[in-house]
């Protein structure tokens, strides 16, 4: 295989074209066997991802947009699907995603579970959880994660890696000295779903898409073309 830093874009295109996608034995989806509500369906698929040994199945891409509609995406970890059927993640209020959500609550999540050829998309509105819940989540984090959260200044220019390590050392000492200290900028967002799509890839490209849409107090469900 040619090196990927080869100047020839034709060679890059060839390399990319030859990469397999949706290879291997993938499960078949029987849409009628899916539950009526997407939260139960998601939890079933998450269980199957865990059982199949999918690496880090709780890693999820979160997409937000700023006040001008400029989108951005990044990976976070899923913290919960709560008893109100909301997908919960944690972040720093100073981060771009949080700044976006504070002015534009529209949000989309995307999971990809490669060994199963499955994608789940959730679109809806993000609500910030109350300070007590955010604090409890912060305190449940490992000391190293708490120190990292105290040390960071999300998105600000960093003069050098040594500055980061020094800030981490100072923050670790603080966490040890003050184990109950909470970062006030630590926030949880719950995504209230409007639409959830389960996508099952297939080697023969007859992929299946099932879209759930909120319908009054319940959900409607339909198949759509892939
Ligand atoms: C596997 C993985 C898990 C991550 N988990 C989180 C997380 O739970 N919360 C978070 O704020 N950032 C998390 N990040 C870092 C984000 O992807 C991102 O770099 C950071 O939050 C800044 O994003 P923003 O400036 O767009 O808000 C994670 C990154 C990876 C690769």
Description:
The chain is an alpha+beta fold. It has a domain at 28-141 and 184-224: Roll (Pnp Oxidase, Chain A). Helices cover 30% and strands 32% of the residues. It has six helices and eight strands. It has helices spanning 9-18, 38-51, 96-103, 131-140, 143-151, 161-177, and strands spanning 59-65, 71-81, 87-92, 106-113, 118-128, 186-200, 208-215, 218-224. Strands 1-2-3-6-5-4 form a six-stranded antiparallel beta barrel. A hairpin with a 5-residue loop joins β2 (71-81) and β3 (87-92). α5 crosses α6 (161-177). The longest helix is centred in the C-terminal third of the chain and has 17 residues, at 161-177. The model has no long low-confidence stretch (mean pLDDT 96). Flavin mononucleotide is lined by residues 59, 72, 74-77, 89-92, 95-97, 154-155.
For the structure shown, list the relevant keywords.
6 helices, binds flavin mononucleotide, 226 residues, six-stranded antiparallel β-barrel, alpha+beta, Pnp Oxidase, Chain A
How widely separated are the two ends? 32 Å
Percent range for β-strand residues: 25-35%
Q: What share of residues is helical?
A: 25-40%
Number of discrete helical segments: 6
Q: What is the total tally of β strands?
A: 8
CATH topology of the domain at 28-141 and 184-224: Pnp Oxidase, Chain A
Strand order of the largest sheet: 1-2-3-6-5-4
Structural class, from helix and strand content?
alpha+beta
Radius of gyration: 21 Å
Averaging pLDDT over every residue, what do you get? 96
Note the run of SSEs as H and E: HHEEEHEEHHHEEE
Major β-sheet annotation: 6 strands, antiparallel, barrel
* CATH uppermost class of the domain at 28-141 and 184-224: Mainly Beta
State the CATH superfamily name of the domain at 28-141 and 184-224: Electron Transport, Fmn-binding Protein, Chain A
Bound heterogens, unique: flavin mononucleotide
* Shape designation: globular
Q: From the coordinates shown, what is the CATH architecture of the domain at 28-141 and 184-224?
A: Roll
Oligomer state equals: single chain
Poorly predicted runs: none
Cofactor: FMN
Binding site for FMN: 74-79, 97, 119, 199, 209
GO molecular function, one term: pyridoxamine phosphate oxidase activity
InterPro entries: Pyridox_Oxase, Pyridox_Oxase_N, Pyridoxamine_oxidase_dimer_C, Split_barrel_FMN-bd
């Amino acid at each position: 295989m040619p090196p990927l830093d080869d100047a020839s874009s034709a060679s890059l295109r060839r390399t990319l074209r030859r990469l397999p996608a949706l290879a291997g034995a993938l499960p078949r989806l029987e849409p009628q066997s899916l539950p009526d509500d997407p939260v139960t369906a998601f939890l079933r698929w998450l269980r199957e991802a865990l059982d199949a040994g999918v690496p880090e199945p709780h890693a999820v891409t979160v997409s937000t947009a700023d006040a001008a509609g400029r989108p951005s995406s990044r990976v976070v970890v899923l913290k919960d699907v709560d008893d109100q059927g909301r997908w919960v993640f944690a972040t720093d209020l100073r981060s771009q995603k949080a700044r976006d959500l504070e002015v534009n609550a529209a949000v989309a999540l995307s999971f990809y579970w490669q060994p199963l050829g499955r994608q789940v998309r959730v679109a809806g509105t993000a609500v910030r959880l109350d300070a007590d819940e955010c604090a409890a989540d912060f305190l449940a984090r490992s000391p190293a994660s708490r120190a990292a959260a105290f040390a960071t200044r999300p998105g600000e220019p960093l003069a050098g890696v040594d500055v980061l390590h020094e800030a981490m050392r100072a923050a670790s000492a603080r966490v040890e000295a003050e184990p109950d200290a909470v970062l006030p900028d630590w926030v949880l967002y719950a995504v209230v779903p409007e639409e959830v799509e389960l996508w099952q890839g297939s080697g023969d490209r007859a992929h299946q898409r099932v879209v759930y849409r909120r319908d009054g107090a319940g959900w409607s469900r339909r198949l759509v073309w892939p």
